Sequence to fold (149 residues):
Amino acid sequence: MSTNFNLTQFGGSFLSAFQYIPQTLLEAFVAFALALIIGFVLALIRICGSSILNDFILVVFSVIKSIPVYLLFISAGMIYVLAVGNMTAGNGMNSSSQNLSTRGVVSLVLTIAYLPAMSEALRGALRAVPLEQYEAAESVGLTYAQTLR
Fold:
C-alpha cells in the first residue's frame, strides 16, 4: 500500500491554517487568564473553606479531569448549536456576532479544562509556605502578597 504525498498541497494547507494562529493564541491566553483568576479563588476556598465545600470542589475537579477535552468541545458545541443557534436564526444576527459567541464557548471550555490543574498548582504553592513564615512576615509588618514573594 503506497501513499502519495503532495508537497504543494501540504504547503497550501499549512499556509491556510497559519492565519488562525493569532486567534488560537488569543483563545488560549484568555482561557489561561480566566483559569488563573478562578483557580486562585478556588484554591483559597479549598485552603480556608469548610470541609463540605472542599469535598464538593474536589469531586467537581475529579469529574472535570476525567472528561477528555475533545468531549468537552463536542458537548459545548452541541449545546451551543441547540441553545443559541435557534435563537440567532430568528433574530437575524450576522455571522460576526455568532463568531464572537463561538469564541466565548471556546474560551469557556478551555477554562474548564485548565481549571483543576491551575487550582491545584496554586493551592500547592500556597501550602508550600510554612505557617512559621507567615507568622514571621506578619511580625515584621509584611502584607500577604509580600509574604508569598
Notes: The mean pLDDT is 84. The radius of gyration is 22 Å.
